[in-house]
Amino acid sequence: MTKTTVIHEGDVPYRPQPTLKEALEQKKIGMYEDRIANISAFRGCKHDCVYCAFKRTLRFQKCDACRAFEPHAHLEALLKKPPKTKPGQFVTVGLTGDIAFATKDELQAIIRYCNKYPETTFVLQTKDPRIFLDQEIQNMITGNMIIGTTIETNINKHGTYSKAPSVFKRLEVMEKLDCRKMITIEPIIAFSPLFGVDIANIHPEIVWVGYDSKNHKLLEPSLYKTINLIEFLRGAGIDVREKLIRKAWNEE
Ligand code: SF4
Ligand SMILES: [Zn+2]
Prior knowledge:
The chain is α/β, with parallel strands linked by helices and 252 residues long. It contains 7 helices and 9 strands, in the order αββαββαβαβαβαβαβ. It folds into 2 domains: 1-30 and 151-159 and 186-252, no CATH class; 37-150, no CATH class. Iron/sulfur cluster binds at residues 45, 47-49, 52, 54, 97-98, 127, 162, 164.
């Protein structure tokens, strides 16, 4: 399948439904288990997602801005050499925040760092992938970098859990970007039937799927729908990695 192939719903056959028992046997919990390190060169965020797990991780830092979760750079972290990655592994940069709040200079410094270590695969994750539409920034993206974003649903009005750009905007921008891509559908939120098609048309190499692990009582899809989505994406040739897979909190 080429990057420009447009996928339609009927292109990927649905597989037989797993039983609930089979589905629950697939349950796995883990935070990006193939992430072998994080280079903490950018911290803090203002997207204010209700389910943010990163705010709390900075609360014991000496730096006032870290404790306040204010977006700011720690470019001294770029002095550290990253580990080399094996196939499937990656190193994140600025996991405890969002690089969308970095200045262009800071973002370029981070990307130059990734350029310097071609034997390491980096994931640059942001809920505002529009930062990568800047042509100068795009030109700096090389094959050892994967651009990642979270897309929890494809129903815009369900995106009220965060001040980040709408899920429509994230879908649109990710489809436009011509580079290695990763999508995180976590925490998964109730979606419309074409969600699989929307994600497949981004042509991501990896998709993570997981339910909210912290009991925020989000508007969740049924397990049946989530399993269908996973099967659809796998059928489209995407490497789908499961995180917390369970029934919706309000599902019988
Ligand atoms: S975008 Fe990420 S870091 Fe920012 S508030 Fe949301 S979950 Fe937290
Ligand atoms: Zn700090």
